[in-house]
Amino acid sequence: MLKAIGSKKDLLDSELSNGYFDTVSDIITDDLVLTMKSFVQHGQTSTFQHCVNVSYYNYKLCKFLKLNARSAARAGLLHDFFLYDWHTHRKLTGNRFHGLTHPAVALSNASAHFELDEREQDIILKHMFPLTLRLPSYKETVVIILVDKYCGFIETAFNLLQHLKIRKAAAA
Predict the structure, then answer these.
(1) Which of 18, 51, 75, 163 is the residue whose CA sits 20 to 30 A from 66?
(2) Is there a contact between 136 and 129 (Cβ–Cβ < 8 Å)?
(3) Is 144 helix (H, G, I), strand (E, B) or coil?
């Protein structure tokens, strides 16, 4: 069973996910995409789970807003497709600017592995606005900017709460 944070729906079930799985099935089951499970993104949330969270809520919000939910969901799964542990990246490569450079790396990886439309490319490349100063060209890109920040905050807050619960239990 695969769920987005805060959701009770099994995203691997085509009926329960309201079309989400059918939209992303080739990406979400891809072996290279699944390697993102081995990289931590926020707290204890893997990069894969973070991308699922962003992708699913992009899909739902864009569908509600009558935007291109397909491109939003697919790009959401690939927006952090940089395939390395960003916590050790600086030490290993000397690149101190992961926050600025990872969208281009993710786009390069995604383009090499999947066929992307122009909207999906824009979403992946510009999801870190305003940090990267790349202005979004599509409404779906604006949606991912907001959804990505929201999911990152929730994932980090959830991890912090779990950590506090463990410390409280240990002190008791």
Answers:
(1) 51
(2) yes
(3) helix
Per DSSP, the three-state class of 45 is: strand
Using the predicted structure, report yes or no on whether residue 26 has a pLDDT greater than 90: yes
CB atoms within 10 A of CB 35: 13
CA distances (Å), 133 to each of 12, 41, 129, 157, in order? Answer: 35, 22, 6, 26
Cα gap 169→165, rounded to integer Å: 6
pTM over 0.85: yes
pLDDT in tens, 70-97: 999 999 999 999 887 766 656 666 566 6
Residue 162 token pair: 């779990």
Residue where the block lists tokens 């989400």:
20
pLDDT at res. 66: 98
Mean pLDDT, range 144-171, rounded to an integer: 83
Terminal-residue alpha carbon distance, the chain: 34
Q: How far apart are CA 27 and CA 24, in angstroms?
A: 5
